[in-house]
Specification:
Family: In the N-terminal section; belongs to the glycosyltransferase 51 family.
Number of domains: 3
CATH topology of the largest domain: Beta-lactamase
Keywords: Carboxypeptidase, Cell shape, Cell wall biogenesis/degradation, Glycosyltransferase, Hydrolase, Multifunctional enzyme, Peptidoglycan synthesis, Protease, Transferase
Radius of gyration: 39 Å
GO molecular function: penicillin binding; peptidoglycan glycosyltransferase activity; serine-type D-Ala-D-Ala carboxypeptidase activity
Distance between the termini: 81 Å
Number of strands: 25
InterPro entries: Beta-lactam/transpept-like (IPR012338), Glyco_trans_51 (IPR001264), Glycosyltr_51/Transpeptidase (IPR050396), Lysozyme-like_dom_sf (IPR023346), PASTA_dom (IPR005543), PBP_transglycosylase (IPR036950), PCN-bd_Tpept (IPR001460)
CATH superfamily of the largest domain: DD-peptidase/beta-lactamase superfamily
Shape: elongated
Largest sheet: 5 strands, mixed
Helix content: 25-40%
GO cellular component, one term: outer membrane-bounded periplasmic space
Strand order of the largest sheet: 2-1-3-13-14
């Protein structure tokens, strides 16, 4: 009351010229003193649109979410119901169309009413309220707390400044623009800014369609948004609404009949609340992708001056962000994931899927079997952590990739001149520290004894078969013949990343996937194979426009050729063997009916993670399965109602790939992979020199001189003298790739002679010479070198070689 009294007194002495300005101005005789009064008005009073949230759209233009600091949707005045305009003018400023920015009559009326003990009135015009809100908004946008305090200070000085600015503003713009600005900036609910947002929230309709009763309710909220919130305080909201209706009737905005109809409506019957969210939770199954987009927007240097500038633009700038997400593929991905591992499955097992377009990097789908948010009693599995990405985009540290990493060893195998039909030793063995080449970090060398699963591998088998069955030791043998750093370089150049962003570690066990990687980076790496060796950075945003429709940024794919197409064709041929209907193929459950597909299974130590990363020429996808706690085993788990002693990549992840890919590509043409060349399949073939019988040192020189890698095996008895060469693996005369590792088998000398025959009177017969030449070949290696001479006939037949099943 004191403030109102002092304000009137102050206005009487200071703003007399301003109060009569409309009349003076009409006569064209505005004094210089009055003109000076309104100089240097703040630029923020130029009726710029208030801050507004940004909309994130899917690729088809459908809305995913609105991200905002203030929940506000700006609209023009003609998009607001006339009832709403009238209601605001009636309750807030009945002389709005008559005054020049301040209303002395209103101030005096409020003062008298307040002194008389009636309902408290503020006396501020709509223009003054708009000015105050603009100054507050400017302080909030700039982060200037002092400016906000000044704009809300209960002082005479602040009210005088507010009045000065209001008069100046009305000189510059018309009443309609001021009313429009007020309707967009005023608070119409606890977290609803602007009339359009309030209409959408409380009534699920645009502001243009507001009825008399609805308009009166919203107009009444602004006095105290929390106290008059119809959701939490319906009784208070009704009293305030009815006050507005009486005022509208008294001022002739509505008839008696319209008043009676509106005042009779219960608040509860009027409401049709549509919850709003300032986070990506509104995006539903796409919430994690939405958060990825937000992180990408803030981190990207493709637009905006810095991260703070981009954050302000995102939360207050009214941007429209179009993304790469394909809603149909997103739904197909989610359905496939939760059909196999339901949300809140009692096993606590999680599953995540990322899918990208080869050749562009556009993210087509990103889902996981959790609801976005914090865990609650009703939803214990709810999670904000994005399981598809690393820490830079709201994810974790990643998960061990298991045997899916073998593809990068296969790539290096072909790049170094080997072929898919080369044979390697798949038998369990130890690789000593000194046998490893790790040029980028020799300290990573170590003794390593990889093991195949029981009954899997053994003997020499082709690389193609080793890939199809995912035989661990075969790939250890291949990697041991090459530089581990080159294998790691392949993975990183194709986009594979750890969740922490740290480089992949090139230790020997990395061959079997001990690095923690993310599903999105796995999908990116395998998309490189689908695109003929072209890798593309993951891409989530295709266009950013401002609130006026001006294009701010149009990000483009960032791609590069990192593998030769011929090498890729060889890898694709091998990985198509993985995704074949033969039960011995580890990825047989991933077969996509009617389409060629390729991929690789992966299972981490102790079944802590299971993977399938696969692709067609049009789509690449990675599926991870495990626990959020990355080292927790899935042994003896009941998942989706089925008990499993072991969980591996060829099970649920492979099934999800098949189900998702079939649906995602439904109606699209079937595309084939290019054919593998004979060079990649069979390689350049050279004959292994015959060094049997020579000294070991001579044999080493001959084989090394022919370009082979050489290692020494364990001695065996043979007809050759000790220190000579009894045999080689592969055998002399075998056709192999240049640079193949040849194992020299030294001779330990002839076997002990047999015991003398019995005396004639014993008549023991000839005996059974079963000891003859039993060092015949291994596996499919084309036979050994031993020649049995015993009386019972030499065992000169070939060994069978156990090709076994895969480790996945």
């Amino acid at each position: 009351m004191l403030l109102a009294f002092l304000l009137v007194a102050g206005l009487g002495g200071v703003l007399t010229a301003g109060l009569v300005m409309p009349a003076v101005g009409a006569a064209g005789t505005v004094s210089q003193a009055t003109t000076d009064l309104f100089e240097d008005l703040p630029s923020e009073l130029a009726i710029a649109e208030p801050s507004q949230g940004s909309v994130i759209l899917a690729a088809d233009g459908s809305e995913l979410a609105t991200i905002y600091a203030d929940n506000r949707i700006n609209v023009s005045l003609d998009e607001v119901s006339p009832h709403m305009r009238n209601a605001v003018v009636a309750i807030e400023d009945r002389r709005f169309y008559d005054h020049n920015g301040i209303d002395p009559e209103g101030i005096m009326r409020a003062l008298v009413n307040n002194l008389a003990g009636g309902q408290t009135e503020g006396g501020s015009t709509l223009t003054q309220q708009y000015v105050k809100n603009v100054l507050i908004e400017a302080g909030r946008v700039s982060g200037d707390e002092e400016a906000i305090r000044e704009a809300t200070a209960p002082t005479i000085g602040r009210k005088l400044e507010e009045a000065r600015l209001s008069i100046g503003l009305e000189q510059q713009v018309g009443k309609e623009k001021i009313l429009e600005g007020y309707l967009n900036i005023a608070q119409f609910g606890p977290s609803q800014y602007g009339v359009e947002t309030a209409a959408q929230y409380y009534f699920s309709k645009p502001a243009a369609d507001l009825t008399i009763a609805e308009s009166a309710m919203l107009a009444g909220i602004t006095q105290s948004p929390a106290r008059h919130d119809p959701v939490r305080n319906p009784e208070n909201a009704k009293k305030r609404r009815d006050t507005v209706l009486r005022t509208m009737r008294a001022q002739g905005f509505i008839t008696e009949a319209e008043y009676d109809e509106a005042v009779a409506l219960p608040i509860e019957d009027m409401l049709n609340v549509t919850p709003s969210s300032s986070t990506c939770a509104a995006a539903g199954i796409s919430a994690y992708f939405c958060e990825y987009v937000v992180d990408e927007l803030i981190q990207s240097d493709a637009w905006g001056e810095d991260a703070d500038d981009r954050r302000q633009a995102l939360y207050r700038g009214g941007l429209v962000i179009k993304t790469t997400l394909d809603p149909a593929k997103q739904q197909a991905a989610y359905d496939a994931v939760v059909a196999n591992v339901p949300v809140n499955d009692p096993s606590d097992v999680n599953m995540a899927l990322s899918s990208v377009e080869p050749g562009t990097g556009k993210i087509q789908a990103m889902v996981q079997n959790t609801n976005y948010g914090n865990a609650t009693e009703e939803d214990p599995g709810a999670l904000k952590l994005n399981l598809n990405v690393g820490q830079s985009h709201g994810g974790g540290t990643g998960y061990q990739s298991g045997s899916s990493f073998k593809v990068f060893t296969l790539i290096e195998w072909l790049e170094t001149g080997h072929s898919l039909m080369d044979r390697v030793d798949s038998s369990n063995q130890t690789y000593p520290r000194e046998s490893w080449t790790i040029s980028c970090d020799p300290t990573r060398r170590d003794d390593w004894s990889p093991k195949n699963l029981e009954g899997i591998g053994g003997g020499r088998m082709t690389v193609l078969e080793s890939t199809r069955r995912s035989v661990n030791v075969s790939f250890a043998e291949m990697a041991n013949q090459m530089d581990m750093c080159a294998i790691i370089d392949n993975a990183e150049s194709m986009g594979l990343k750890t969740g922490t962003g740290e480089p992949l570690i090139p230790n020997p066990s990395a061959v079997l996937g001990t690095n923690n990687v993310t599903p999105l980076s796995q999908a990116t790496a395998f998309a490189t194979l689908a695109a003929g060796g072209v890798t593309c950075e993951p891409m989530a945003i295709t266009e950013i426009t401002d609130r006026s429709g001006n294009v701010v940024a149009t990000p483009e794919s960032t791609c590069s050729q990192v593998l030769e197409p011929a090498i890729v064709n060889g890898v694709n041929h091998a990985l198509q063997e993985v995704v074949s209907p033969r039960p011995s193929s580890t990825g047989f459950r991933a077969v996509v009916p009617g389409r060629p597909a390729a991929g690789k299974t992966g299972t981490a130590n102790d079944d802590s993670a299971a993977w399938f990363a696969g692709y067609t020429p049009q789509l690449a996808t990675a599926i991870w399965m495990g626990h959020v706690e990355s080292n927790r085993s899935m042994f003896n788990s009941t998942i989706n109602g089925q008990f499993h002693r072991e969980v591996f990549g060829g099970l649920y992840p492979a099934q999800v790939f098949s189900q998702y890919t079939a649906r995602a590509l439904e109606g699209q043409p079937v595309e084939q992979f290019p054919q593998v060349s004979p060079r990649q399949l069979f390689g350049e073939r050279v004959r292994v020199p015959n060094v049997v019988g020579r000294s070991v040192s001579d044999a080493q020189s001959i084989l090394a001189g022919a370009g082979f890698q050489v290692q020494i095996g364990s001695p065996v008895e043979s007809s050759w003298q000790a220190g000579g060469v009894a045999a080689t693996q592969p055998a002399s005369g075998a056709q192999v790739s240049p640079g193949t590792r040849i194992t020299i088998i030294p001779s330990s000398g002839p076997p002990e002679p047999p015991p003398p025959p019995p005396d004639e009177e014993d008549d023991g017969g000839d005996g059974g010479g079963d000891d003859g030449g039993d060092d015949g070949g291994d596996g499919n290696n084309g036979g050994g070198n031993g020649n049995g001479n015993g009386n019972g006939g030499g065992n000169n037949g070939r060994g069978n070689g156990n090709d076994g099943g895969g480790d996945d």
